[in-house]
Amino acid sequence: MKNLFLAFFVFLLASASIAQRANYQWGNENVQTISGTIYDNSRPTSYMKTEEGTYYKIHLGPIWFWNDNNYSLSQSFAKIKGNVRTVNGEFNIYPFTIEQNGNKIVLADDKGVPKWGKGKGNKWRNGNRNRW
Which one of 25, 50, 66, 108 is most buried, counting C-beta atoms within 10 A? Predict the structure, then answer.
């Protein structure tokens, strides 16, 4: 039983660390507006191809946040404003807003703070205390 508890505790710490690292990616260091066609929508990520032929992996955040807000994303043209990062040659975008078919989905504020964690307690990010 002691080993089971220890394994659960290690798993819990690892999960919290990964979640904080993922939220940090939203940031606002390289905010861009990208337009293109969503061609794969397998939440919690999706994929877009721009008219120039650039591919982006779109990080959509927690599925429960999308479900709670009745958000949906179709495989069609979209305009995304968000933080763009390149990891191992792959373009990633952490959206603040997604505009598609006359609808606007808001996932983060202009500072890059995701809406799903706001007001749920203080977290540490980049040495500063922020609300997620």
Answer: 108
